[in-house]
Design goal:
- The protein is an alpha/beta fold and 368 residues long.
- It has helices at 35-59, 74-85, 98-143, 155-166, 181-189, 202-207, 223-236, 252-258, 266-279, 281-291; strands at residues 25-26, 64-66, 93-95, 148-151, 174-178, 193-196, 215-218, 241-246, 262-265, 297-303, 319-325, 328-331, 345-351, 362-363.
- A 7-stranded mixed β-sheet has the order 1-6-5-4-7-8-9, with helices on both faces.
- α1 crosses α2, α1 (35-59) packs antiparallel against α3 (98-143) and α9 (266-279) packs antiparallel against α10 (281-291).
Length: 368
């Protein structure tokens, strides 16, 4: 029986004020003006149209007749312009001269149409905003396949995504899950789709389309949360590759039993790298270079090519460190690793370059 050690507070269990009953999906925001700025701009345009209409009526006030007192003053001009632009038209103030009527036809009527367009446009903008967002969400769901779900957008989650980006994975293929709305807003600002909610709940993971994901990265801050998330994720998706991070090494077996394909002990890994750097700073630098993708040396996983079939692992052009044969991982010095077979995959060290793998290899992180 394993006991989960609790190392401390977790980003996945933040204050209750950030926990939401629903788990809305937040797509990256399109570059548009803020709604209040749009409304303010259109209001100013409407006021300008009203002011121009008042000026026109005031200048031609002698051509208008007020049924109450006959004359038209500034207040009457404002009143007439308002009811005219709003198409109310009470009929108490009317243009009676030919010039005033011609002015109404050529100037006031177009201004009335422009005024209505401004008002109707603002109303439609508000009414259709949710419809447009719903359409984007439905299209996103229909197109999302074989994506990557990153649970936890902290330091570990961000680092994992940077490595994925270095392998050529597009931002559209990543969905971030985090209980903090502010964190998801940050992810949206970086062009990532986010889901706000507790990832231990299946309905939250379903909103992230986890059931159709190819790979899942669990980067929570608490080990017990990671176990619950792993159990839920594996139940929803039996075929996805799940990589999880834990703080305490004694909790790693429990993560594997919960369904994780690979478990990284963050504290122990950092400690080993520190110890290696103490013994040999150069060796520590090489290890740091290997786990940082896109520069210096990279670890890659690739299939065996035809020219390598039947050869010893030491006879390949790359520096092969392991051979993946079926579900067995064989070291380069294992007698069973050679000769290489056509169905094998090799893990080797290569010099990083934009086209180092030709699109056929899979770059590895420390999670491998």
């Amino acid at each position: 029986m394993f006991h989960v050690k609790l190392p401390g507070d977790d980003a996945m269990a933040r204050g209750a004020e950030e926990q939401l009953n629903a788990a809305p999906v937040k797509l990256p925001k399109q570059v548009v003006e803020r709604p209040l700025r749009q409304v303010a701009k259109r209001l100013m345009m409407a006021l300008v149209v009203l002011a121009v209409t008042v000026l026109i009526v005031w200048v031609d006030r002698d051509g208008y007749h007020d049924n109450s007192d006959g004359g038209v003053d500034l207040l009457d001009a404002i009143y007439y312009s308002t009811v005219t632009l709003s198409t109310t038209g009470y009929g108490d103030i009317v243009p009676y001269s030919d010039g005033a009527r011609l002015t109404n036809v050529l100037l006031v009527t177009p201004l009335r149409v422009l005024f209505l367009i401004i008002l109707v446009g603002t109303t439609l903008e508000v009414l259709t905003e949710r419809t447009r967002e719903e359409f984007r969400l439905n299209r996103w769901r229909s197109q999302l396949r074989d994506h990557t779900v990153v649970i936890g957008f902290g330091t570990k989650g961000r680092s994992a995504m940077q490595t994925l980006f270095a392998t050529g994975l597009k931002k559209e293929q990543i969905v971030v899950v985090d209980p903090s709305a502010k964190v998801i807003e940050t992810a949206n600002a970086e062009g990532l789709t986010g889901v706000v909610g507790d990832a231990t709940r299946s309905d939250v993971l379903l909103r992230a389309e986890l059931q159709r994901a190819r790979q899942i990265v669990i980067a929570t801050q608490r080990d017990d949360t990671a176990v619950l998330v792993t159990l839920t994720a594996r139940q929803l998706n039996r075929g996805a590759k799940i990589v999880a991070a834990v703080r305490e090494e004694e909790n790693a077996p429990l993560l594997r039993q919960s369904g994780a394909d690979a478990v990284i002990t963050s504290a122990s890994a950092a400690g080993r790298l520190l110890g290696l750097s103490v013994l040999s700073p150069s060796a520590g630098t090489v290890m740091e270079d290997l786990i940082q993708q896109g520069s210096g040396l990279d670890l890659i996983e690739r299939p065996v090519i035809k020219s390598e079939v039947g050869k010893n692992v030491r006879e390949t052009e790359d520096l092969v460190v392991s051979v993946l044969r079926g579900h067995r991982l064989l070291g380069y010095d294992d007698p069973q690793a050679s000769p290489l077979q056509i169905t094998d995959r090799v893990i080797s060290i290569v010099r990083a370059s934009p086209a180092a793998d030709g699109g056929n290899s899979v770059r590895l992180t420390s999670a491998e």
